[in-house]
Amino acid sequence: MAAQANTVGTKKGFLHWARSRRGQQTIIIIAFMIIPLALLFTFTYLPFGEMVGFSFYKMKYVGKRTFVGWKNYASVFSRKDCFGALKLSLYYMGGSVVQLVLALYLATILSFKVKGGNIFKGFMFFPYLINGIAIGFIFKFFYTRGFVFDTVLQWCGFQLDNLPYWLKDQSINNISLVGTSVWRYFGQNMVLFIGAIMSVDSELYEAAMLDGANRFEQFRYIILPSIKTIVTLNVILSITGSLSAFEPPYVITSGAKLFFTLLRRAKVLILRIAERILEEQFLQNRGRKDNQKQHHRHRRGQPHLLLGMGDLVHNHKVRSRSVRTAGNDIRRLEGA
Is the pTM of this model over 0.85? Predict the structure, then answer.
C-alpha cells in the first residue's frame, strides 16, 4: 500500500509539474528538439560513424570486405600528393590575410559618407555572386599569354618578353590563382565588415573626436574592438575557403596532371570491364555452340562435327585477339 501511495504521489507530482509554466516550457523545448536532433544524428553523426568504421576495411563494391586495421591511414599519410595539396593551401592562407586586410580597409572607408560609396560596394561585392566555373574561364583568358593582363602591363611600360607565363611558370602560377581567389571573395568579407562597423554607436566617434583622437586611433580603439566577433568569423571563413578551393584552379589550369591521371584510370577500368564482358560472352557462346553441335551430331551425323569445331576455333581466335588487345591497352595505360 505504501508503494502504491508513493507511485500515485509521483504521478500527481509529475502531472502538477507538467501543468506548471516551467514544465510546459521544458516539454515544448524537448518536443521541438527531438526532430532536429534525430535528423542530425541520422544524416550526420551516423554516416560519419559508419565512414570511420569503413576506414578500417578494404572496401569492395561486390564481395566481402577485408579488415586491414590502420593500413589505410598509413597509406594516406605516406602519400606525397596529400601533403602537397596542404602545402598549396598555404598560398591561399597567405592570400586570405591580404584579402581580409584589403576588405577591412575598404569597409572602414565605405562605412562613412563617401561619394558613390554604394556603387563601389556593389562593384566589389558582385564577383562573389559569379559562379566559380565562370570565374575560372574569365581568369583563364585573363592570364593567357598576350591577353588582358599582359596587355595592361604593356600599357604600363612592361615588355612582353620580360613578363612571365602566369599559368605555366611554377614559381608564380600559385600566386596568380590566389589573386583570383582574393578578387572573388574579398567583397563578401567587406560587406560583413561594413555591417559590423555601421552597428557601432556614432556617439563613440563624437566622443573620440572631442578627445582629439584621429581616424587611425578611432579605428584602433573603437572600430576594431567592436567588430572582433566578425573579424573572427571572417578569419574562419577564409581558412575553410582556402582549404576547399577547387573550381577556379581546376578550370584555369584545365585540371593539370590530376585530370589526366583520373582519365587514365577511368580508361583502365573501362577496358577491364570490356575484357570481362568479352570473356563472359565467349563462355556463353561456347556453351550454346556445344549444345547446338551435339544436337546436329545426333540428328545429322558425325561429319557436321568438324564444321562446328571450325566455328568454335574461329570464335576462340576472335575472342583471344579482343582480350589480348584489351590487356595490352590496360598495360600501356597503367605504365603511362
Answer: no
